[in-house]
C-alpha cells in the first residue's frame, strides 16, 4: 500500500460513513430545535450569531468522530474564538495533522434563528491538508451532498455535475454579506455592484456551504465571498471539484484550506468572474 495514500477505512467504519452519519444526526437534531432557541448571542459583530444549538451540534459531531477516530484532529467553528485572525490561527495550529475534521455545525445561523429554511451542516475530512471527504447536509430539504476524492459527488444518490453556462450573462451567481464590516463586506458589495448588471441574477441566501453545494449540483453557476473560514468552504470545495467545477481564491490562485476569499464556479465562467472581481476591487 502507498504510505502517502489515506486509508479510508479504520476499525470497520469508513470516513465517509461517519461524516454522513454525523451530518444526518446533527441535522435532524438542529431541525427539531428550530423555533425553540433559548440562548442567542452575538460573536464577532452584531451580524455574527451563535445559539446553544450551534454549540450542541458541534459537541455531538465532535464526540461521534472521536468515538470512531480518536487520534484524528478536529477544527470546529464553535471551538475557536470569533473573528478572522483567530480562525486563521486555529487552522494554522492544526495544519500539521495527518487527519483533520473541519466542521461548521450550523452554516447559516442567521437564517436558522429567523426560521428561513436555508442552513446546513458542513463536515470535511482533510488528509495532510487535502480534503478527501466533504459532506453538506440541508435539513430543511433533507438533501445530503456527499463527495469522496476520486469517487465523484452525489446528492440523493445521483451523481452531480456543474452547470454548463459559459458566460456571466447567462449565469446565476451567489455571494454573501460577510460579518466583517470593515474589509470583507465593502469588498463583497463592490463585487455585487459590478456583477449585478452583468449576470442573469444574483442570490445571497445565507449559507456559504450550501451555496457551494448548489454550484456542485449545477443549480448555481458560481459563488464568491470574502473572508470565509475553512469550515465554511472545505466540504463544499470537494463537492465542486468532484462535480467538475473549479475553485480558487479571488485572485485565481489554487484553493487550499487557508484560502478565505473564495471563488467557486462551473469552471467555464471562472476566469471571467475573477476578472470582474479584480476590476471591481480596483475601482
Ligand atoms: C455564515 C454564512 C453566511 C456567510 C457568512 C458566514 P455562519 O456562516 O455562511 O452565508 O455570508 O460569511 O459567516 O456564521 O452562519 O456559520
Ligand atoms: Ca459558517
Ligand atoms: Ca456556523
UniProtKB/TrEMBL annotation:
InterPro entries: IMPase, Inositol_monoP_metal-BS, Inositol_monophosphatase-like, Inositol_monophosphatase_CS, Inositol_monophosphatase_SuhB. It comes from the Bacteria. The keyword Glycoprotein does not apply. Its EC number is 3.1.3.25. It catalyses: a myo-inositol phosphate + H2O = myo-inositol + phosphate. Belongs to the inositol monophosphatase superfamily. This is Inositol-1-monophosphatase. It comes from Cohnella cholangitidis.
Amino acid at each position: 500500500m502507498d504510505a502517502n495514500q489515506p486509508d479510508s477505512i479504520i476499525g470497520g467504519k469508513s470516513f465517509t460513513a461517519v461524516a454522513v452519519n454525523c451530518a444526518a444526526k446533527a441535522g435532524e437534531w438542529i431541525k427539531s430545535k428550530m423555533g425553540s432557541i433559548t440562548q442567542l448571542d452575538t460573536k464577532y459583530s452584531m451580524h455574527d450569531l451563535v445559539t446553544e444549538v450551534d454549540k450542541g451540534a458541534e459537541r455531538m459531531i465532535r464526540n461521534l468522530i472521536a468515538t470512531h477516530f480518536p487520534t484524528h484532529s478536529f477544527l470546529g467553528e464553535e471551538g475557536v474564538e470569533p473573528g478572522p485572525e483567530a480562525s486563521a490561527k486555529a487552522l494554522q495550529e492544526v495544519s500539521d495533522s495527518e487527519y483533520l475534521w473541519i466542521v461548521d455545525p450550523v452554516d447559516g445561523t442567521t437564517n436558522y434563528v429567523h426560521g428561513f429554511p436555508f442552513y446546513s451542516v458542513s463536515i470535511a475530512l482533510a488528509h495532510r491538508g487535502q480534503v478527501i471527504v466533504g459532506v453538506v447536509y440541508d435539513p430543511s430539504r433533507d438533501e445530503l451532498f456527499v463527495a469522496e476524492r476520486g469517487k465523484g459527488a452525489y446528492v440523493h444518490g445521483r451523481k452531480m455535475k456543474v452547470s454548463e453556462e459559459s458566460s456571466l450573462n447567462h449565469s446565476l451567481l451567489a455571494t454573501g454579506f460577510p460579518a466583517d464590516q470593515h474589509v470583507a463586506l465593502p469588498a463583497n458589495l463592490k463585487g455585487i455592484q459590478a456583477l449585478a448588471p452583468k449576470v442573469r441574477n444574483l442570490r445571497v441566501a445565507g449559507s456559504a456551504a450550501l451555496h457551494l453545494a448548489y454550484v456542485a449540483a449545477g443549480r448555481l453557476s458560481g459563488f464568491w465571498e470574502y473572508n470565509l473560514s475553512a469550515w465554511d468552504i472545505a466540504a463544499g470545495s470537494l463537492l465542486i471539484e468532484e462535480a467538475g467545477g473549479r475553485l480558487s481564491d479571488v485572485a485565481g490562485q489554487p484553493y487550499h484550506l487557508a484560502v478565505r476569499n473564495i471563488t467557486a464556479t462551473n469552471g467555464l465562467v471562472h476566469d471571467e468572474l475573477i476578472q470582474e472581481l479584480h476590476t471591481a476591487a480596483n475601482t
